[in-house]
Write a structure and sequence with these properties.
It holds the Pfam family DUF6920. The protein is 13% helix and 49% strand. With 247 residues, it is mostly beta strands. The chain has a single domain (29-46, 53-238), classed as outer membrane lipoprotein receptor (LolB), chain A, CATH 2.50.20. The mean pLDDT is 93.
Length: 247
Amino acid sequence: MIAGVPVLLRPDWEKLVPSDDPEQVMPTPDGLPKAARRWISASVDPNTPHWQSVQMVTRGELRYGDWHEFLAREIVNVDKGFIWAGLSTKGVPLRIVDQYTEGVGNLRLRLAGVVPIRWQDPDQLSESAAGRFALESLLLPTGWDRWTFTEGSTENEFTVTIPVGDRSFDITVTTDEDGHLLTASMLRFGWPEEKGPGVEAPFGVRAESWSRWNGILIPEKYTASWWFGSAGERELLRASVSLATFA
C-alpha cells in the first residue's frame, strides 16, 4: 500500500491489492484492430508481468464550483474496482472519495472534513462509478484480454468494450502514430453541471505527456472533461502522476 491512504479506506483498499503474483508472460495481442495492437505494444514493455493493479499518487486541480488544488491517491484493480481519495491542498479542506468496489459505487465529498456536501441516489452513484472504473481500467493495458475491440473510423482509433458487473461500456480511444494514447472518451452517467440532475453525457480524457512505470506507459499529465469533444466541453480535472506502482 502506498503511503498516505486514509485509515478508513484501508480495508477496501487492501481488497484491491492482488494477493497472488502476476503471470510473468502477457498474452500476445493477436487478432485485434491495428490501432489497438499498436497501443498495447507501445504501452507494455516486452517481458512485463501481467499486472492486475496500479497504485498512484497524483496532483493537480479539480473543479467543484471553483478550482481546488489537490493531492490524491488511487488504486485500480482491473478485475475488482477502484478507489480515488483526494484532498485539497489550499483553502478550506475539501475531501473527495470516489470508488467502485464489490459492485457498488460511492462518492463522498466533505467540506472541512465533516460537512457532507453531496449525496446522490445509490444506483446513480454506482452507474457513474462503474463508468469511471471502465475508463480507469485503461491504466492497465495488461488487462486487454478481458475486453472486446472493434475498428475505429480512422487508422489511429479503436473502440474497446469493457464489462463492469452486468454493464458494459464502449470507450473510443485515439492514439498517435507511435501508439501513445491521446484521448479516451465514452458516454458516462454523472453530474456535468455539478448541482444539476444526473444525466448520461460525453466524458473523456486527454493525455498531454506520458511516463513509464514498471514497464507500463501511462498518461503522466492529462485533463478530464464533461461534454467531451463538444463546443460546451467543461474541464473537471487537470492532473499529473508523480508515482505509479504496478502489481
